[in-house]
Design brief:
Layout (H helix, E strand, L loop, with lengths): L17 H18 L3 E2 L5 E3 H7 L5 H6 L1 E4 L5 E4 L4 H10 L9 E10 L11 E10 L4 H17 L5 E7 L3 H18 L5 H9 L13 H4 L11 H17 L4 E2 L11 E9 L7 E7 L3 H4 L9 E7 H10 L11 E5 L5 H13 L4 E3 L6 H10 L4 E5 L1 H6 L1 E6 L5 E5 L3 H14 L1
Parallel strand pairs: 1-5, 7-8, 12-13, 12-14
Antiparallel strand pairs: 2-4, 3-4, 5-6, 6-11, 7-9, 9-10, 10-11, 14-15, 15-16
Helix pairs in contact: 1-5, 1-11, 5-9
Bound molecules: adenosine monophosphate.
Amino acid sequence: MPNAPTVVKGMRDLLPPETRWFAEVEAAAREVFALYGYEEIRTPMLERTELFARTVGEETDIVGKEMYSFTDRDQASLTLRPEATASVARAYVEHRLWEKPGWTRLYYIGPMFRRERPQQGRYRQFSQIGAELLGGDAPQMDAEMLIMLARLLDRLQLTGWTLYLNSLGCADDRRRYDAALGEALRPLAPRMCADCRRRALTHPLRVLDCKRPEDQELIAQLPTPLDFLDDGCRGHFETVRRLLDAAGIAYQLQPRLVRGLDYYTRTAFEFVHGALGAQNALLGGGRYDLLAERLGAPKGAGAGIGFALGEDRLVSAWQAGRAAEAVPAAAIYLAPLGESALGPALALAENLRRQGLGVMAGDARWSAKKHLSTAARQAARWAVLIGENEINSRQAAVKALATGEQSAVGWDQLAEFFSASREQILSS
Ligand code: AMP
């Protein structure tokens, strides 16, 4: 087809069976979040552009060059959300969620949009699974979130990850640190890449995020946020670390870990995974004590901590560690052998489905040989052949596709037969 429309650059169609992996990861996340008392929040995919400019930060890559923004018909500037923490904080303020007793625990799952340079593990539409714990600044909250993440990765049987931990300090520490960093960068920046030279003037903290190998030696000479923590922030970070030690969660201190969003204060973290190559960050997050306050929450009620996990990356790390196994869309393949068999065959299939058994109906080819070959290629466990003889005798011909073994099973016994065979297969 000439000039057929194709998918937008940097975006992708997720097809089966990959969609199944996403659904499994999401189900596991919902299950684990519920264990800690988190409930789901769904915010719109469109927000006012101003929300991200004010929270994520004008000088960040996300706001500076990666947002999909447009002017609506009423002249409002709207943006497809590049991340969801700002939206959750907005909703927290708009619905005065701090008025409910205790901390607020929310999670979300959904697509985010950033116009980044596409590469393996980096897409312009990607899915994040995230959670936010709002309403206080106790180090216990930081520990709970990190413990919950370790529980989630464990539930997914994902091994080989490392937790990187840092503290960026509070607003006062950051001011002192930024000044010292700017000073330290003055003689070094001219020897760094163009991005670093620009950031040294506009947003010195972001220099630490440079991945260019040639700049690393110079970056290693720069002071770190940890050197500038005041007593309160140092104590806070020590407690977080002590609680992680007590919970048996291993981490690596990464004094130069910074995040690409401006609202973070104090604890910052990332979980990385070896199977992911250059884009090795599986998830990232941190504390944001001033975010919701800036959007209108009363002093103290707006502090919180959150994370966002890249679902696309998690699925690829997860798949890399699991044996490829052909899982059928439905275990039973229904093979009607003629037009006249169709009515009874479909009724039979419906009866099995009513009892919770998955049945995929074969198409109108009527040939047992063709049906069996399709059933095998679909990785079905059984084919149920229904022709004139089977209808007259009310006995279905059931073929176990792995062994080729065929048996005649009475229509009323079929559900029982499959349930028993399933147990046999699972226990063998
Ligand atoms: P961030 O919101 O930038 O803190 O990112 C949190 C996580 O989202 C990262 O650790 C990645 O796993 C994932 N992520 C961020 N940007 C992308 C992208 N463009 N494509 C795929 N995953 C992404």
